[in-house]
Amino acid sequence: MSVVTAERPPATTPRPPVPVRRPWSWRKFFSRLPIRLLVAFIVAIEVLPMVWLLLSSFKTQNEFLLGSVWSLPESWQVSNYVDAWVTGDFATNVRNSILATAPSLFLLLLFGVAAGFALEVMIWKGRSTILLMFVAGIMIPGQMLLVPLFIVYFNLGLTETIWPLILTYVAMGLPMTVFMMAAYFRAIPREVFEAATIDGAGMIRSFFWVGVPMISNAILTIGLVQFFSIWNDLLVALTFVTNNDLATIQVGLLNFSGEYGALQYGPLFAAISLNVFGTLIVFLFFSQKIMKGLASGAVKG
Question: Which 3 state secondary structure label does DSSP give 67?
Answer without folding.
Answer: coil
